[in-house]
Amino acid sequence: MRRQNGFSLMEILIALVIIGILGSLVVGNFMGAVDDSRFTKLKSDFKAFESGLMRYYSDNGFYPSTQQGLAALEQRPDSNPEPTNYPRGGYLKIEKDPWGNEYLYLSPAEYGEGDYEIISLGNDGQEGGEGMATDIANWNVDEYVQSMKQANQ
């Protein structure tokens, strides 16, 4: 009688289950790191916009209008109110939010307190929503990040 070498079907299935479990753990940790990096970029963008808006206000005595938007920090607006002291090259380059959407800008603020509001539509790119799809503003970003971290634990 010959003896056959190799693995039984049961041994292969057990190995696949173990690989699947280990893979899900790695993917879970990776997705948490991706979310953390998005939150970090979002907070960094808000700080940069706030700094640019403060410089804009300091130079001109007013913030850009809602119609002028954040683009007024990148390129001199030609609509009213026109800035009188605009630096060559603008204040900063405007990038999209971590989910690839344009930031919204409201002046005066509609929901938060203050002279302006900067909003990311979150991962769904739609206004409104709940959970991960909630809109995130410069005035509630810390609360949002904290609630998402608690939900992921």
Describe this structure in words.
The protein is mainly α and 153 residues long. It has a single domain (41-148), classed as Glycoprotein, Type 4 Pilin (2-Layer Sandwich). The chain contains two helices and three strands, in the order αβββα. It has a three-stranded antiparallel β-sheet with strand order 1-2-3, with helices on one face. The model has no long low-confidence stretch (mean pLDDT 84).
Topology:
Layout: H1 9-60, E1 104-106, E2 117-120, E3 136-137, H2 141-152
Antiparallel strand pairs: 1-2, 2-3
Helix pairs in contact: 1-2
* CATH class term: Alpha Beta
Mean pLDDT: 84
How would a textbook summarize the main sheet?
A: 3 strands, antiparallel
Share of β-strand residues: 5-15%
Strand order of the largest sheet: 1-2-3
Shape: elongated
CATH topology: Glycoprotein, Type 4 Pilin
Task: Give the C-alpha Rg.
Answer: 24 Å
Task: Give a concise summary.
The chain has 153 residues and is mainly alpha-helical. It is 42% helix and 6% strand. It has a three-stranded antiparallel β-sheet with strand order 1-2-3, with helices on one face.
